[in-house]
Please model this.
Amino acid sequence: MVVDGWLDGAMSLNVSASDPEGRPETTVASLPPKLPDEVTLLDVREEHEWVAGHAPDALHVPLGQLPDRQAEVVAAAGSGQLLVTCHLGGRSARATDFLVSSGVNAVNLAGGMQQWAAAGRPLVSETGAAPQVDGACRLSRWPLSPGCQPRATPRRPSRADSRCPGSCRRVHRDR
Model:
């Protein structure tokens, strides 16, 4: 079950309900237009995903670094709540499980940054290009080249592939 509401007055995520696995979870549609100051958005996507597009004021800690940087995350959240996101919600679910098991008040964002962007929520980019959250092919370690559009059917690149996974097929230089 997905959490649909916010607690009145406290302005923190309502965690009285959870998904079938017992994980506190909410959706982008249930969030207020502006996240309250008591809520810290934690983005656990990889660096190339973050650079292509992320929510303003989010804290970036890739999932693989979370155990080593847990103290930093807890300090950033203070006495508030963590809203954990990734691309679609799988990695953020694992991060939420880890944080909750450590006693941290964390809630998974179902649908992740893909739903965040689809809802028209604000995004920023570190590249100077228009921010995008679907810019990295799931089969490639490279983000799309600036101005390139995702292919309807991505080709499966080899490990050594350095071509853009999108329609432009440009060769990536060392990024």
The two ends are 41 Å apart (CA to CA). Confidence is low (pLDDT under 50) at residues 1-11, 136-142, 151-155. Residues 41 and 83 are 5 Å apart (CA to CA).
